[in-house]
Write a structure and sequence with these properties.
This protein folds into two domains: about 150 residues, Alpha/beta knot, CATH 3.40.1280.10; about 70 residues, tRNA(m1g37)methyltransferase, domain 2 (Trp Operon Repressor, Chain A). It is elongated. By secondary structure, the chain is α/β, with parallel strands linked by helices. The strands form three sheets. Strands 2-1-6-5-7 form a five-stranded parallel beta sheet. Bound molecules: 6-chloroguanine. The site of 6-chloroguanine has 14 residues, from strand 5. 6-chloroguanine (6GU) binds next to strand 5.
Length: about 250
């Protein structure tokens, strides 16, 4: 997979994308992330990427020309997604990470200043994504979040055996929050690990984990249950916990 990131702050990227699973995915050749300095696509001596808003008002707006020229220079394949990171975008979800992980080339445009010329948003970007309901000073941190979420899904990125399993247990992949995890020591400062996890009874462990995922989702993110795939046993368990099916 090839990922292109267009930004006026290319120096922000190497560290977060170089470590851990995302760094390893690149070293293993599963993906290459190319960071492009938007200022390289300006033509004035000051390398201007912004302008004041037509119609007046506060702040500055990113000009369209460098963004259009930067994207054109990438020679993207027909139909490759061009994602603008903006608080006006659709909420970025695990399903978006899965969809983008299946692409061969993904381009991310990082907005800065108080906005981006609407011709970029409407005619150059093929979609707009936001990482949450708060305002960041630019799309760069959001792009890092999106790249991390995508690259860890690439087959082989999680390193350890069966790729599908670790992914399937992730929070959100199943539509539920992940079950609680424990490791050594079995007892620490009087806090013990649930007996079932030490029992060796694989079916009982699976049942316990599913029920804990349901309990945790009901307590912390009940709105997710409306979209989750639930079995009859799941529903029964949830009702025991006080869930009122919609
Ligand atoms: Cl994608 N960009 C900015 N500037 N702020 C955000 C965001 C993106 N997602 C949440 N807040």
């Amino acid at each position: 997979m090839q990922v292109h990131i267009v930004t006026i702050f290319p120096e922000m990227f190497p560290a977060p994308l170089g470590a851990g699973i995302v760094g390893r995915a690149q070293e293993a050749g599963l993906a290459a992330v190319h960071v492009h300095d938007l200022r390289g696509f300006t033509h004035d001596r000051r390398r201007t990427t912004d302008g004041s808003p037509f119609g007046g008002g506060p702040g500055m707006v990113m000009r369209p020309e460098p963004l259009f020229e930067a994207v054109e220079s990438l020679k993207l394949p027909e139909g490759a997604p061009i994602v603008a990171l903006t608080p006006q975008g659709a909420p970025f979800r695990q399903a978006d990470a899965e969809r983008l992980a299946a692409e061969e080339v993904v381009t991310l445009l990082c907005g800065r200043y108080e906005g981006v010329d609407e011709r970029v948003m409407a005619e150059l970007a093929t979609e707009r994504l936001s990482i949450g309901d708060y305002v960041l000073s630019g799309g760069e941190l959001a792009a890092m979040v999106v790249v991390d979420a995508i690259l860890r899904l690439l087959p082989g990125a999680l390193g350890h055996a069966p790729h599908g399993e670790a992914i399937a247990d992730d929070s959100f992949t199943s539509g539920l929050l992940q079950y609680p995890q424990y490791t050594r020591p079995a007892e620490y400062r009087g806090m013990s690990v649930p007996d079932v996890l030490l029992s060796g009874d694989h079916a009982a462990v699976e049942r316990w984990r599913r029920n804990e995922a349901l309990r945790r989702t009901l307590e912390r993110r009940p709105e997710l249950l409306a979209q989750a795939t639930l079995s009859d046993e799941d529903r029964k368990e949830l009702r025991k916990l006080g869930w009122r099916d919609a």
